[in-house]
Design a protein that fits this description.
The chain contains 13 helices and two strands; from the N terminus they run H-H-H-H-H-H-H-H-H-H-E-E-H-H-H. With 311 residues, the chain is mainly alpha-helical. A two-stranded antiparallel sheet has the order 1-2. 35% of the residues are buried. The structure holds Phenylacetyl coenzyme A. Phenylacetyl coenzyme A binds next to helix 2, helix 6 and helix 9.
Length: 311
């Protein structure tokens, strides 16, 4: 019986039909999605911190307004993604506890500090740039609520990418000091951005199942290559140098070969030993505690309305 259900489930996926919350799905598929979508949601929410750090110091009113809008968008992305995860039968409280106790991961990239205004540009250009490559692919993911969230998120991420590239272009074409800041930001964010795509395919524990179930539509290495090829051209256009002496056009494959990624650094950061891991989680815990009264009030208001409707 279970076998028959599993075959029908895979047939549906192979026919490019979406799996919806009330459809039968194997437990392994459900758990895989909870892990991936919640990691994605946590990344959006924790990702507000490095940029939020610069809201009070943005160099103009326009820059401040744009940055505030971007950080608010990330909160919205987190909310769509938490909602999509909840359709799989887990509560928001459980998800938050997993994040705060270190049981759930979030993207390595958000454990690096934002030292200058150019870092805000580098995040938009590189981090959102990497996120878009990954998320454009995920628009075709097999789980309906995740796929629909991605379609909307990608539209907003395109604006974020442009915001970052605009900052970087202005600085790269500005004074010598601004050029140095832009190059320094690129030097620090380049390699961690490549790590965002996850381990090489040969070391990626989840890719095989994810590809069979069409949760992932392209592999970590394939997406990383798309990102590198795009970013190299964008860097050239504004006169910045990608910090990789092995970066070279490969005429046979028609893409850029690039140097070795430091996977020790990646695992150290992912396992809690990056520059900012503790600070990020402490800030989250503090904000969550301070926001308790808002959640209590919202629940009380909903309950009151429900009771009112019944009376
Ligand atoms: N960081 O077998 P795989 C954004 C873990 S959104 C930390 O290859 P998978 C927007 C992985 O969980 C950025 N951990 O795993 C924004 C697994 O550990 P586990 C987030 C990572 O799932 C911009 C282990 O390594 N985007 O930036 C990372 O098949 C600006 C083995 O790896 C998403 O989450 C990593 N980078 O592939 C916000 C996209 N990579 O769980 C604010 C959706 C891997 O067994 C400002 N997620 N690990 O303990 C995905 O596409 C996939 O989950 C991957 C990883 C590609 C991230």
């Amino acid at each position: 019986m279970e076998d028959r259900k599993e075959r029908a489930f895979q047939d549906k996926i192979d026919a490019e039909l979406k799996i919806e919350p009330k459809d039968w799905m194997p437990e392994k598929y459900r758990r895989h999605l909870i892990r991936q979508i919640s990691q994605h949601a946590h990344s959006e929410i924790i990702g507000m911190q490095p940029e939020g750090n610069w809201i009070t110091r943005a160099p103009s009113l326009r820059a401040k307004m744009v940055l505030i809008a971007k950080v608010q968008d990330e909160a919205g992305h987190g909310l769509y993604l938490y909602s999509a995860t909840e359709t799989l039968g887990i509560t928001r409280n459980e998800l938050i506890t997993q994040l705060q106790t270190g049981k759930a991961k979030y993207s390595n990239i958000f454990n690096y500090p934002t030292l200058t205004w150019a870092d805000v540009g580098a995040i938009g250009w590189l981090v959102d740039g990497a996120a878009i490559v990954n998320q454009q692919s995920l628009r075709r993911t097999s789980y309906g609520p995740y796929s629909r969230a991605m379609i909307r998120i990608c539209k907003e991420e395109s604006f974020h990418h442009r915001q970052g590239y605009e900052i970087m272009s202005k600085m790269a074409l500005g004074t010598t000091e601004q050029q140095e800041m832009a190059q320094d930001a690129l030097d620090r964010w380049w390699w961690p951005s490549l790590m965002m795509f996850g381990p090489h395919d040969s070391d990626s524990a989840h890719t095989s199942n994810a590809m069979q179930w069409k949760i992932k539509r392209e592999t970590n290495d394939d997406l990383r290559q798309v990102f590198v090829d795009r970013a190299v051209k964008q860097a050239e256009l504004i006169g910045l140098t990608i910090p990789d002496s092995e970066l070279k056009w490969n005429p046979k494959n028609k893409n850029y070969d690039f140097g070795k990624i430091d996977w020790n650094e990646f695992w150290e950061v992912v396992n809690g030993n990056g520059f900012c891991n503790k600070e990020r989680i402490n800030n989250h815990v503090k904000a969550h505690e301070e926001g308790k009264w808002v959640r209590d009030a919202a629940i009380a208001y909903t309950e009151k309305n429900k009771n009112g409707a019944r009376a």
